[in-house]
């Protein structure tokens, strides 16, 4: 398992310069277009939490292009290890994004009195749950259809739920008292706790679905 993860991180290392440049550009862009630097920086960190886990799909596409799986199954590796390494990689990348965002929230709090630390951390937790759910849907689809065919599917996986949420909020959001919910610590804790449990359950179920798909594949 460690060897598989090292292989994936070696693949991702070639994209590290692009990630750094991209995030720098995002920070500048959001800082210029947002009302203040705090909200702009928080928006950039949100993008980081979304972008980093997607690189797991990049490693799967590279494996497919290089026929890595044909070699991997000829080695003393279980298919459960190959599938599991992708799920671990996705969580590690997501964890890096969330941790980076949390550290930045702390730094902002030191220099900006108006930085809402708990609000930003809550947003990071919501992003963590959201991306975990999206990865739970996306990874089995990539195992099923391959990296190239799944690019358009990936766009749909992220865009369709976003459009649905925007539509529901625009249609019914006026009738909901979000401020009261946000001020009720118990309700917020229950909602966030439920979201975390659902995300974890979906991720575990997704792993077994992907494992079933991968076991039936022939290379």
Automatic annotation (TrEMBL):
Protein name (database record): ABC-2 transporter permease
Entry keywords, A to Z: Membrane, Transmembrane, Transmembrane helix
Transmembrane segments: 12-32, 38-57, 87-111, 117-143, 152-170, 190-214
Organism: Fumia xinanensis
Signal peptide (from-to): none
InterPro entries with a match to the protein in the record: ABC2_memb-like
One Pfam family, short name: ABC2_membrane_5
Domain of life: Bacteria
